[in-house]
Design a protein that fits this description.
alpha/beta; four-stranded antiparallel sheet; 15 strands; 48% helix; elongated; binds ligand ME8; Methionyl/Leucyl_tRNA_Synth; Methionine--tRNA ligase; metal ion binding
């Protein structure tokens, strides 16, 4: 049977500087979704990349005495190293300087011009260079950029415009008919009121700098960076370049996952571009919140950033991924602190999950010679534990369908927490002392099965976990017991050899952090 397809994208980041944990969050969240979908039987395409054109990059390169291409090449290599370090399983990395991308952007621009959706006029307005965005007078916030509150420059030039305004009614109808398209709902409401204020035509070319894709029929213009950037989602699939088998298979995208700062571009400009091109629209745009520091939003241009490499070296990739995904609630902002990270890792990973595995494996070695025995009839708290574990995959599925990764993880950790409590309630050490072998076997079997369940469910978020846990549970070579389909209670066979292994998540001393 053919697997259903699933296409998910991250924003393509500006190589204006190295990336911080805010970007890592978007990418790791998309990666976890991609891994989850692969695990649950989908044929997945997961795209990330870099958005390399524009005045900001041109200026940064000049300041470094490099050509823009030399400058971006080095930074983009750094992006790829970071994704490798964080175990990001992307299928393709698109650069807007790729030839395959240029061809498509020019083709689209030409088509929109020929069909009358792009026209030439005089532009007068305000430009925010760090945000790469034009504003009209009335959009400014007390004379400054409404997005980043920095100074804007007055620009007046001949430009091409995209007849966005023509599509406002169609856009509104689409949004009403597709209430799930923009998530969360707060973002959807913002976009609706933005369009209700009146949609102006969009200035889609510049002549004041050069580092961009040339307008094919008027090469003193370069294509406005957002039209260039958004096109990546289809150019990477081979749209408009001959072999369009990937495009046919994966477009429209199931999810564009982006930060709330760029929801407007993804939910207004992009769908309208696609409407004008008569192409299908993506199914969902999810706008997540921001990682903040006490000093405000973490941002490359402000320089108040946390380097994900440093965290991964210090705490391990799985711990960093877990923290980022568990701690930021869907759609809301979160304050980053290393103390919060250490507390999460200590509580959820060292105390709850790691301890469950190590105490269970120790008891299995000690009381059963490391060979798991068949369970007897359930009694006492068994049913509650088993029900919770058995109902967890469907709850995780429900949260994942909304891209609510924090609650998916919370659901898994509820089962982990219940299993630790179960061990306290059933006290296998007393059962061993009292020679109640059948009951002891049942209890230890149940926790082993819980460890298998929770490890499978947690694996999209923490990709190194299975490789470290399966040898301890004795099922390293039994892929049939590691799959999502194997989440059926009591699939783990008796006779499995359990071997206590390394400590998965050593406790971190909070005091050592204070001394740094
Ligand atoms: O906007 N917290 O690129 P960019 C959470 N090139 N997420 C954050 C964040 C924070 N503090 N800071 C950044 C661009 N992000 C365009 C995108 S897409 C066709 C073009 C994440 O390098 C978040 O996903 O400025 C945000 O949307 C993205 O990085 C912006 O990255």
């Amino acid at each position: 049977m053919q697997k259903p397809s699933f296409y998910i994208t991250t924003p393509i980041y500006y190589p204006s500087d190295n990336l911080h944990i805010g970007h890592a969050y978007s990418t790791v969240a998309s990666d976890s979704m991609a891994r989850y979908k692969r695990l649950t039987g989908y044929d997945v395409w997961f795209l990330t990349g870099s958005d390399e054109h524009g005045q900001k990059i041109e200026r940064a390169a000049q300041a470094n005495n490099q050509t823009p291409k030399e400058y971006v090449d080095k930074i983009v290599d750094g992006f790829k190293r970071l994704w490798e370090r964080l175990d990001v399983s992307y299928d393709d990395f698109i650069r807007t300087t790729d030839e395959r991308h240029r061809i498509v952007v020019q083709k689209i621009f030409q088509q929109l011009y020929e069909q009358g959706d792009i026209y030439k006029a005089e532009y007068e307005g305000w430009y925010c260079t760090p945000c790469e965005t034009f504003f009209t007078e009335y959009q400014l916030a007390e004379g400054k950029c409404p997005d980043c509150q920095r100074d804007v420059e007055k620009v007046r030039e001949e430009s091409y415009f995209f007849r966005q305004s023509n599509y406002a009614d169609r856009w509104m109808k689409f949004i009403e008919e597709n209430p799930e398209f923009i998530q969360p709902t707060s973002r959807r409401n913002e976009m609706i009121s933005f369009v209700k204020q009146g949609l102006e035509d969009l200035c889609v070319s510049r002549t004041t700098f050069d580092w961009g894709i040339k307008v094919p029929f008027d090469p003193k213009h370069v294509v406005y960076v957002w039209v260039d950037a958004l096109t990546n989602y289809i150019s990477a699939l081979g749209y408009g370049q001959g072999d369009d088998s990937l495009y046919k298979k994966f477009w429209p995208a199931d999810i564009h996952l982006v930060g709330k700062d760029i929801v407007r571009f993804h939910t207004i400009i992009w769908p309208i571009m696609l409407m004008a091109l008569d192409l299908p629209l993506p199914k969902k745009v999810i706008g997540h919140g921001w990682w903040m520091l006490d000093s405000g939003k973490m941002s490359k241009s402000k320089g108040n950033v946390v380097d994900p490499h440093v965290l991964a070296d210090k705490y391990g990739v799985d711990a960093v991924r877990y923290f980022l995904l568990r701690e930021l609630p869907l759609g809301a902002d979160g304050i980053y602190s290393e103390e919060a990270l250490v507390k999460r890792v200590n509580m959820d990973l060292a105390n709850d999950y790691g301890n469950l595995l190590s105490r269970s494996a120790t008891m299995m070695e000690k009381y059963q010679g490391g060979v798991l025995q068949s369970p007897g009839a359930p009694e006492g708290p068994d049913a509650e534990l088993i029900d919770l574990a058995v109902s967890a995959p469907a709850k995780v599925e429900e949260y994942m369908s909304k891209c609510d990764l924090a609650n998916a993880l919370a659901t898994i950790w509820q089962v982990v927490g219940r299993a630790n409590k179960y061990l306290e309630e059933t006290a296998p050490w007393s059962l061993a002392k009292g020679e109640q072998h059948e009951r002891l076997n049942t209890v230890l079997y149940n926790v082993a099965e819980v460890i298998r369940f929770t490890t499978i469910m947690a694996s999209p978020f923490m990709p190194n976990l299975p490789g470290r846990v399966w040898p301890q549970l004795g099922i390293a070579d039994k892929s049939e017991l590691q799959s999502w389909e194997s989440l059926r209670w009591a699939s783990l066979p008796a006779g499995t050899t359990v071997k206590r292994g390394e400590v998965l998540f050593p406790r971190i001393d909070l005091k050592s952090l204070e001394q740094e």
